[in-house]
Amino acid sequence: MKAKATKIVNGVYWVGALHWNGRTFHGYSIPGTTYNVYLVFGKDKNVLIDNVYGGFVNQLDARIEDAFAQEGKEVKIDVFVQNHSEMDHSTHLRETIEKYNPEAEIYASPNCAKFLEQQFHNFSDLEINTVQTGDELDIGGRTLAFVSAPMLHWPDSMFTFLVEDGILFSNDAFGQHICRPYRFDEDYPIDIVKREAQKYYANLVTLGSPMLRMKLDELTKNGIVEQIKMIAPCHGQIWKNPEIIIDLYAKWGSGVCKDKITVIYDTMHHSTEKLAYQIAEGIISEGVDVVMYFMQDDGPDDVITDILDSKAIALGAPTMMNKPFPRIGNMMYWLDCVNFKGTTSEKNALIFSSKGWGGGAIGKLQVDLESAGFNVTDTLDALFVPDEDVLEEAFNKGAELARSIKE
Ligand code: FEO
């Protein structure tokens, strides 16, 4: 096939792949994605950073050929840097090495070297140079500085900083699932890029928030943050304005939120729904933003995205067989997985339910929410269909929840 490489600065090219019809990733919905691979030309060595998912090697090969053609150079890769071993960035690594230079140097974190063999079972005969923070590689007029980044988002994750150009190749961190023709943040409405970055952080990075805070502190203290001119992640748009995403990551990682409440509910005969609507009205009456999700139709990934920058949630489910209505169970499982305990500020939660007789949903949801890092401040357990008094109580509890988060 034929495909063009994108020059991102002189001597550095994007040579990755576009996955136009990708619709799920790590279990959450996406509007397509990219597998970003970068080719860096040094005076002495040419370096390929990361690789592509299974089935996308033809795009990678075509763009590598094109990048060398644009440089007017013979195709020759001297160094392979692998920042992370997950398959979307490594499936074709072995064959790429075989194709371009079986004698090339290979650099990766110790865990990445181990994980490559454990996933593909064909790396044990290759010599992989294992590197960590502080290690550097001179490629002739350009220096690669390696930065260990464990749990952002795997134990093997690593960043590679191209010192002279100020480009941070961050692999998954700072990414977004977007698949568009142009490569930079400023090529599209920035609110769309930020929203996809938020969805990515919420669903993939939240659990690693303590490590993220430590890494940002380290990069600030050792002077790298002020040298970064561009962040080139392995999914989505390249940040020509890195301060935007660094600021957002600092906020998301430390639990800095908006005056916003996410209402999540499911309903059997519309009673819990009536409570949800009244709680929303109470929140609005206090001038606080509200986003509402109905779990019959909405995905937990979008809910998690909005919870990330909400100061509180209101969660409602009918009681069925002494437990929360089952579709809420999927939502609770996601909340437990991503877990907001690692962020530094606790989110308040109001739990509401309608029941026929014995109840039981609220107790179960309270245990699960507290385990996922929420501070349950109030509950509302309505009997069958809420009457006007109960609806007023729901309104008042929504207003109270809103007042509890206002600055
Ligand atoms: Fe994009 Fe952890 O893979």
What is the count of β-strands?
23
What class do helices, strands and sheet pairing give?
A: alpha/beta
The radius of gyration computed from the alpha-carbon positions, rounded to a whole number of angstroms, is 24 Å
Distance between the termini: 56 Å
Report the helical percentage: 25-40%
Strand content: 25-35%
Mean pLDDT, as a whole number?
96
The CATH architecture of the largest domain comes to 4-Layer Sandwich
CATH homologous superfamily assignment of the largest domain = Ribonuclease Z/Hydroxyacylglutathione hydrolase-like
Low-confidence stretches: none
Bound molecules: MU-OXO-diiron
Structure in words:
With 407 residues, the protein is α/β, with parallel strands linked by helices. The chain folds into two domains: 6-253, Metallo-beta-lactamase, Chain A (4-Layer Sandwich), CATH 3.60.15.10; 263-406, Rossmann fold (3-Layer(aba) Sandwich). The protein contains twelve helices and 23 strands. It has a seven-stranded mixed sheet. The chain has a five-stranded mixed sheet with strand order 12-13-14-15-16, with no helix packed on it. Strand 4 and strand 5 (28-29) form a beta hairpin. Helix 4 packs parallel to helix 7 (242-254) and helix 5 (209-221) crosses helix 7 (242-254). The site of MU-OXO-diiron (FEO) has 9 residues, from loops.
